Amino acid sequence: ECVRTYLAWLTNLGYERASVVRKLSVIRGLFRWLLKEGFVEEDPVPRYSVMRKESKLPNFLSIEEVERIFIAIENDNCSEYLKLRDIAMFELFYSTGIRVREMSGLDVSNVDIEFMRAKVLGKGSRERMVIFGIPAKKAVLKYLDNGRPQILSNGEEPALFLSQRGNRLSVRSIQSRARKYSRLAGLGKDVHPHMIRHSFATHMIEGGANLRVVQDLLGHASPVTTQTYLHVT
Q: C-alpha angle with apex 44: 40 to 49, nearest 5 degrees?
């Protein structure tokens, strides 16, 4: 009764169902431990979840909205070398569908410009190879030639994308850039790097790409995760 009342209280406060389910999971783990250690005689938490996690389809951008983001970067009043950096970064985002942490973790040595591919370290420290197209290749080359040398303060910094101080660009900074350009583009939605990842996958599948190929490029362990994009549009 107490657990059910608690879940109802959280729901009435306006918590997302996913958050409520997560808190229930924590309680279940606690009582499993208490039972194992002998602090309680029985586990009061229902064995099966009394709430199911909602199945939400991922939000994504249209091709026209993606183009508006690049126009916003072009028209931004930041310095030219930062503009080159951001264009290269968002071209890579849209061309590869990699996660924001994977983008932040990219080193110059991970990117093979000639063969248009990059090695990324994904979830569970699993390495995979992603490929990118000619627009991303041109943008990264331009950034490496005319942008990165202007930002680099420490010649030994291996990171591909640098902050104004010459250090590795953080996840938080990349997310902040995405929000900024979505506002400048007048998209009326809070665009985050993961939304660009969703857009990459959706546009790939809409264009006829093989589901298994998209799964490998995204680094999904299970094809079930990738199949979500079949239902997005």
A: 140
Tokens (6 digits) for 92 = 């890579």
8 A C-beta contact, residue 198 and residue 60: yes
Determine the pLDDT at residue 225.
81
Nearest to 22 by CA among 47, 1, 51, 45: 51
Write out pLDDT tens, residues 180-192.
999 999 997 778 8
List the end-to-end C-alpha distance of the chain, in Å, as a whole number: 41
pLDDT, one tens digit per residue, over 218-230 is 988 888 888 887 7
Task: Determine contact, residues 199/60, Cβ cutoff 8 Å.
Answer: yes
User: What per-residue confidence (pLDDT) applies to 55?
Assistant: 61
Query: Which are the contacts of 216, defined by CB distance < 8 A and separation ≥ 6?
Result: 128
Q: What is the mean pLDDT of residues 204-208?
A: 89
Asked whether the CA dihedral 8, 13, 16, 18 is positive or negative, the reply is negative
User: Cβ–Cβ contacts within 10 Å for residue 51, how many?
Assistant: 16
**Residue with the two structure tokens 């410009």:** 113
Q: Region 210-214: what's the mean pLDDT?
A: 89
Q: How far apart are alpha carbons 224 and 133 in whole angstroms? A: 26
pTM over cut 0.90: no
Quote the CA–CA distance of 27 and 44 in Å, as a whole number.
10
Angle between helices 171-184 and 80-96 (to 10 degrees): 100
Q: Which residues are catalytic?
A: 99, 123, 194, 197, 220, 229
